[in-house]
Design goal:
Distance between the termini: 18 Å
Bound molecules: uracil
Radius of gyration: 22 Å
Helix content: 10-25%
Largest sheet: 9 strands, mixed
Structural class: alpha+beta
Number of helices: 8
Number of strands: 17
Shape: elongated
């Protein structure tokens, strides 16, 4: 397992960030502790806000109590809203998912895979570079479940082409699970809030559930386009064993221990291949 303290290359780090990451207080609160003279590094009071510490060597105390950064990697999921790029920084200063997750508390956090700017749903983040790599490796076959509002209504022939592995410009897609969702399906309203209405041309639209295990760029949009149905809205509600349960759009949460365990099992699966 990778160790963010050793491997993320971000140390030494600012003392207030260390304190926030150690769960002592928010960064602002940590700054107040520092200026109040309550924080010591190797026994010496440090109140200057730009001061840095190296958690591998320095002993940090608050009111005499030692604080440590959890050496375990962080795992969390975001319910990504539309309008954010899946990257931790953007040279054009467009909104990125970095604004939605606690990067200060978890230096080295990065998204595992990507969702398009207009796609909503489950995006996994970790500081564990090994795990992220393993989950994205094609040999892992990690399934992703998407719900797509599409133009028109795919018929059984369209769905069978998706199930067989539809041809894309860069080669055939792997066989997918594909089904039409009924308006009674709880996922239906995630992409069709007012029900399956009509697209701009007056054409009826429909909601498709699609399970794939590849991760090519714009894969779902290209697969649906290949069978003649443009994706109007796209949402990912599951990534491997993870689902968005307990999250509202724009929110994040740490993974539960059993969820981390399930991801670990996927990683080990790869090692056995
Ligand atoms: N497929 C797409 O086309 N877009 C996404 O964001 C994810 C999968």
């Amino acid at each position: 397992m990778s160790d963010p303290i050793r491997e993320d290359g971000l140390y030494p780090m600012r003392l207030q960030r260390f304190l926030a990451r150690a769960g002592v207080a928010s960064r602002r609160g940590s700054e107040r502790l520092m200026t109040a003279g309550r924080v010591r590094v190797n026994g010496i009071v440090v109140s200057e806000l730009g001061s840095k510490v190296d958690p591998r060597r320095d002993v940090v105390t608050v009111d005499g109590i030692e604080c440590r950064i959890e050496a375990r990697p962080a795992y969390l999921m975001l319910y990504k809203p539309a309008g954010y790029l899946t990257t931790m920084s953007d040279p054009y200063a467009r909104p990125t998912v970095a604004a939605l997750v606690p990067v200060d508390e978890f230096p080295g956090l990065y998204p595992v895979g990507r969702l398009d700017m207009d796609t909503t749903g489950l995006l996994l983040f970790t500081t564990d570079g090994d795990l992220g790599q393993a989950l994205l490796h094609p040999s892992r076959h990690v399934t992703k479940h998407y719900v797509a509002l599409v133009s028109g209504t795919p018929d059984e022939r369209d769905l069978d082409r998706l199930r067989a592995g539809v041809m894309l410009e860069d080669g055939p897609a792997a066989p997918a699970r594909a089904e039409l969702l009924s308006p009674r399906d709880p996922l239906f309203s995630v992409v069709a809030p007012r029900g399956a209405g009509r697209t701009g041309g007056g054409e009826k639209n429909a909601v498709v559930g699609l399970t794939i295990h590849e991760g090519r760029k714009h894969q779902v949009k290209k697969m649906m386009q290949a069978v003649g149905h443009k994706v109007l809205r796209l949402h990912r509600d599951a990534f491997g064993p993870l689902t968005l349960s307990g999250l509202a759009e724009g929110g994040w949460r740490k993974l539960h221990d059993d969820e981390v365990g399930a991801l670990e099992a996927l990683r080990k699966g790869r090692e056995q291949l």
